[in-house]
Design goal:
Elements: H1 2-14, H2 46-56, H3 66-78, H4 121-129, H5 173-184, H6 200-203, E1 210-214, H7 219-231, E2 244-248, E3 253-256, H8 268-274, E4 278-280, E5 288-290, E6 294-302, H9 310-320, E7 337-339, E8 345-347, E9 353-355, E10 357-362, E11 365-373, H10 378-384, H11 389-393, E12 395-397, H12 414-429, E13 443-448, E14 451-458, H13 466-475, H14 478-481, E15 488-493, E16 499-505, E17 508-514, H15 522-526, H16 535-539, H17 545-556
Parallel strand pairs: 1-2, 1-14, 3-4
Antiparallel strand pairs: 2-6, 3-5, 6-11, 7-8, 8-9, 10-11, 12-15, 13-14, 15-16, 16-17
């Protein structure tokens, strides 16, 4: 028993930086010193080396007494030098104690009352027969791409699959696991894992239904990819199966509608502090805030199929089938959803919006894209769109205003939602045939019932056509984001007696009205019609520090355009 204890202690020392060879050897001269102890290059015997190691360890001070050391020495003499010590915790020498041997004095000096007592094999088998059989749990397979916390000792045991609410057959669990594997395949590259990808250009003109999922988080790049896919949809009249689903998630950004005025929609001050990019999309609708807790989905099809709630209703049906269900450690929807007359997806209980929609119709095509608030930072969302009443009153225009609505998160995992979108799209618009399995790493085929469609993972910049890059440069240009704003007027007070009204059209100051003459604004007056409506550009033409700061603040709160990624 004592030799077993020493072997265990020797094993523990080995894991702290010491090296053992054979039975009990001297500490390796190359081992790192432990707690400042010197290396020992030579000792009188193996057992003596072990004793010195243990006695010099400050963590074991007072543990050994003389009787125990003598017992160790005697045991070492009786050991055979040829004994195999590969198993440092060999239990063969542990004595078998029966019910008559439970006197504490028969144990090692430091045994405590209540220590476990071994029993004979016959007694163990007899006791085992009187116990209830152990119910083996069904295995619960977790995706290697989920971030799961370690199970604590006091946590309740994981439920078996039979105890979980049954998922609907329409969910197709095997497809979900395949989808997760496909989306993350290649995330951890190896020297030989060079992906073989099909180019986006070769896929967008397919006459079959295709789902595109961008793994980029750059909002300008995602909008460029979406627009490219929309523009290259084959003529719907001759390609009735050609429909598209586009999914992507953006890093934090603000996106305004095509005909909106950012000067009365956006809190420039907060956007400037947090360096939140501002974008203008090609479709109409109101201003929205994106972050990685929001998934954007777009349904592209023939113009004749346009319906504000068409794809939304199909998606809602799939999501509602998951309410109250459980699958592994994924978060599924917590409440029933429905659509309102505007085409938005809302909580059926309180009518709070969880998804807003925007639309575009052109060239015989239709585009319905929406946001889905899954795990969005609500505080940031509301702050970036919050303006004082005084600020809004300063702007006079005829632009379409955003209509504030109460919103909430669905609180479901982003990947479950993305898969649900693919499920809804393929089940409703897939083709009833066996598509050829592609030989590319970024293309897969998913089948739901008798319908299937291709799924494309967009994650390689080298595979993007130049047209996407050109669109990207447009989305980041000042002329598109701010210069595209319809004409408006901006009124503000510049001092106690000076009232200013600037007339802006196509991003330039065309006219300036003053309540009195102000010579310090003469240079600005001379450049009217040419100067950009930017705080920094206007301030350069003002000959007074106080007025310069007042103009810059009232125009755009001194927005750092370069810091927000906006090009000249």
């Amino acid at each position: 028993m004592l030799r077993c204890l020493l072997r265990a202690q020797n094993f523990e020392l080995a894991t702290r930086g010491f090296t053992t060879f054979g039975a009990y050897r001297s500490i390796s001269s190359q081992g790192a010193p432990f707690n400042g102890l010197p290396h020992h290059h030579a000792v009188t015997s193996d057992t003596e080396a072990t004793r010195q190691q243990l006695e010099l360890d400050p963590n074991l001070e007072g543990f050994f007494d003389d009787d125990l050391v003598e017992s160790v020495k005697k045991g070492a003499k009786s050991d055979s030098v040829d004994k195999d010590f590969n198993d440092l915790l060999d239990p063969s020498e542990v004595p078998i104690l029966g019910k008559d041997d439970i006197d504490p004095s028969t144990f090692a000096p430091h045994s405590m009352p209540g220590s476990p007592v071994t029993m004979t094999t016959e007694e163990f088998l007899s006791q085992l027969k009187n116990q209830k059989p152990i119910q083996e749990q069904e295995p619960i397979v977790r995706s290697i791409f989920r971030n799961t916390e370690s199970i604590k000792k006091n946590d309740p045991p994981l439920p078996t699959t039979s105890e979980l609410p049954e998922l609907p057959e329409s969910f197709h669990v095997h497809n979900f696991e395949r989808f997760i594997d496909f989306m993350h395949r290649g995330d951890i590259p190896t020297p030989k894992s060079i992906p073989k990808n099909a180019s986006l250009e070769s896929l967008v003109e397919s006459d079959l239904p295709v789902g595109f999922i961008s793994r980029f988080n750059d909002p300008r790049l995602n909008l460029s990819i979406e627009r490219y896919i929309y523009k290259h949809l084959p003529d719907p009249k001759n390609n009735r199966f050609a429909k598209r689903l586009v999914l992507y998630r953006n890093s934090p950004c603000i996106v305004i509608g095509k005909n909106q005025n950012p000067y009365k929609e956006i809190n420039f001050r907060m956007a400037n502090m947090y360096k939140i990019p501002i974008l203008r999309r090609y479709s109409g609708g109101g201003t929205v805030v994106h972050d990685l807790g929001n998934v954007n989905f777009s349904f592209i099809a023939d113009k004749s199929l346009f319906n504000r709630t068409g794809f939304s209703n199909i998606l809602v049906e799939r999501l509602n089938a998951l309410v109250g269900k459980t699958y592994l450690d994924y978060n599924l929807p917590r409440f029933i959803l429905t659509t309102n007359s505007k085409g938005d997806i809302v909580d059926a209980g309180n009518m709070h919006k969880v998804s807003g929609s925007a639309y575009q119709l052109s060239g015989g095509r239709s585009l319905h894209h929406g946001t889905m608030l899954l795990n969005v930072n609500m505080k940031l969302l509301s702050g970036l769109l919050k303006l004082s009443k005084e600020t809004k009153k300063c702007v006079e225009d005829r632009c379409i205003d955003s209509v504030p609505s109460p919103v909430e998160n669905v609180n479901m995992d982003e990947e479950v939602f993305e898969y649900s979108c693919v499920n809804a799209f393929a089940s409703s618009y897939g083709v009833p045939s066996f598509l050829k399995r592609p030989g590319f790493d970024n293309v897969d085929v998913l089948k739901f019932g008798n319908s299937e469609c291709q799924v494309v993972k967009v994650d390689d910049l080298d595979e993007l056509p130049q047209e996407v890059i050109d669109e990207y440069n447009t989305f980041k240009s000042w002329e598109w984001v701010f210069g595209r704003t319809p004409k408006f007027k901006l009124r503000f007070q510049a001092g106690d007696e000076l009232e200013v009204c600037l007339h802006i059209d196509h991003g330039k100051v065309k006219e300036m009205e003053l309540s009195r003459d102000e010579p310090k604004l003469d240079r600005l007056s001379e450049r009217l019609g040419d100067v950009l409506f930017r705080g920094d550009k206007v301030a350069e033409l003002i000959d007074d520090n106080s007025l310069r700061r007042t103009f810059a603040w009232n125009i755009d709160q001194m927005l750092d355009y370069e810091g927000l990624g906006v090009s000249q």
